[in-house]
Amino acid sequence: MTEPQIKPDAPAIEVNDLHKSFGDHEVLKGIDFHVGNGEVVCVIGPSGSGKSTLLRCVNLLEVPTSGQILVEGVEITDPDIDVDKIRSRIGMVFQSFNLFPHLSVMGNLTIAQQRVKKRSKSEAVEVARKNLEKVGIPEKEDAYPAHLSGGQQQRVAIARALSMDPDMMLFDECTSALDPELVGDVLAVMKNLANEGMTMMVVTHEMGFAREVGDKLVFMDDGSILEEGVPSQVLSDPQHERTQSFLSKVL
Amino acid sequence: MALSPRRRARLSRGIQYAVLLVLVVLVVGLADLGQLQEDFLDVEIIKMMFPDVIVTALKNTVLYTACGFTFGLVLGMVLALMRLSPVGPYRWLATGFIEFFRGLPALVVFIALNTGVPIAFPGYEIPGGLLGVATLALGLVGGAYMAETIRAGIQAVPKGQIEAARSLGMPQTRAMRSIVIPQAFRIILPPLTNELILLTKDSSLVYLLGYTLASVELASFGREILNQEKNFTPLVVISLCYLLITVPLSIAVRRLEARSERAR
Question: ipTM of the predicted structure?
Fold first, then answer.
């Protein structure tokens, strides 16, 4: 296994001719895609378009069938690479939160810091508190996930990912499972992150967020990227017929 | 006369109580209580059984069960992980082992270990003497059952849990140890308790290995005195001793469950 050599000037994420099949079903049909450092890229598209699969390929939760993915200049599709090292630099937030139900909020935030980053308990707690503060729920550190609302759980999940000091964050439809009145809290946290300069890849249905916060908007359909560009332009003046019909339904 | 549903329910409940009362009265009235006491609750025999029934027999039953269960749990864990392994031969081996030892009566396992092993491997002895053989036999049988329970528990933990752990950079084994297995054990706490209680009773088979005054467990101890006194009192005493193990165990587990329920 080789220690990944990070190239600081390389783009955060670079995807070249990525294909992914589940059995006979080809979900990604040759994707070329990139996210620059400090950029917020939003990926939209109908369900089944492959946008979540693309996001999950970036930290190898799905293993690509062919093609190349580089994260900070390191080819993660290389079978000799230490995937765990790469993953600890990429924060991921899931649609279904996936907090660890047997651990308190503090446990959720410290376990990987201690086990993976080998931080001391007190250091991990300090980092965790800082991040709970950041997502706006410092008072919940002793609570268990089941006792939190969906919006709080998702903010804990964001704080958990941030506690690993990632270089970039992936968001997989992270507001889709929330009650409408709780979506705003989570989006506000994400907006703050973007303003701090975090590199973000966001698979979302929140067009308002994409327009306001995104540097780039990517529209995917049927395993391909059909259109990409500045969010306000793509949203108000879509060029591709499929983009037009999708946006007319969701906006 | 038409009764309202609620009145009918009350009447039905009243009848159920009446039937119960009649049964109790019949049993108490018809049974020869004097004879019953003489045969099942002979105070002299009870006095004679103490303190050995507690300090030796009960202690040994707990010891055999605890050792067998611990070994079985470790074995079951290994087998469960083998069953879930991506390597085919491990899966086949584990499946074969589980099917074999689950299907075999515990009695046969005890006899096979006790007499079969010395014949098959002359000069070789299972380490630990009687306790070693008892641990091995109980563990083999219990482990085969527990393997399937543990496997089901691991599979009941949502896939998102391991994905979240891996996305934080935890290696597969660490994610299993810190995230999946603790949750799996919460899920399987009730069936695992069942297994422990079954094993407590299976520990009576240790008599097949022979016993001495020091190594006797509850069932053999009771049978010994039963034969000696031609009286059923020892059976009542050892039954109460078994309950003395299993009932507090059930209560403890129920408390534990309630506690982890609060954290869910």
Answer: 0.92
